[in-house]
Amino acid sequence: MSVETFNIGYKNADVYKEMLPPHYYGGTEDTDLVAELLEEIHGPADGRPRDLRALDLGCGPGRASWPLARYGSLHGADKSEGMIERFRSAFPAAEATVGDTERVVADLLAEGRAGSYDLVGSFWSLNYPLLECFEETSADGVVSVGDPEAGLVRARRIVDGLTRLLTADGHLVMLFFDADSAEQRLVTELWERIAPFPGTGRDYTWRIVEDVLLRAEREGRGTLDVRRLAGVAVAEDAAAAREWFRVGHLNTFPGLVDDPEVIARIDAFVAGHTAEDGRVMIPSGVRLVHFRAGAAAADHLPAAAE
What we know:
alpha/beta, Rossmann fold, nine-stranded mixed beta sheet, two-stranded antiparallel ribbon
């Protein structure tokens, strides 16, 4: 592996599509979880145009953007120009921005677009900009960024900014990885050969998200609902499973993917989760997050009691 291929899975849309296994939770694919939640919120899209304004942060090539797009105008943002190019091809009418989530959120608020979005989505992507508040990862290694307390302020500002972008009755919807899944425990074990995760470890970014959104709830700015779902990522064979770990989780980081002990650990994990038909069933987990701005207590009453 080389510097040129570092993090290629999140820069090149073709590599991303090739490496990414489908993820299922209770028989439902991850993107359909989002679609089902939006139907709970707004009712079936039914192919009819809607006038809601939606923002997808860390949109990548737009794989999970379609549930948002069904309800109105779409704005996608991603730090990779290659991903945004593919996003534009998939959603030619959408607004598209190249930029990392921290900068995009700050810029939108500075432009006076607080309270502008009926839907804000972040699907599997928010962990990365939050981690970048504490450390920088390149092909050369992992380097801490300044004061951890200053990083925590930055991370909280990002999450709080998501709520500030919502309209008075807007909805923030996220898919956030579960650090306790077997998949993520292995990823943590391997990355910590290079450097420990900041704060409390692999779940630190989730704790920040939860804390900020609960604080917003306590301040009366909305209500938070989180569903923790166990599931499985299905790789078609052992080779595909290895690539998911090497490219998707380890970002082709030379210090890991060139280490024989790391490869042996991945191989053992893959072998332990290979089904009789040759597919690899990787134990996965997700938190389906829904923060509704401005929700009133009466909204929780049954219809007969209103």
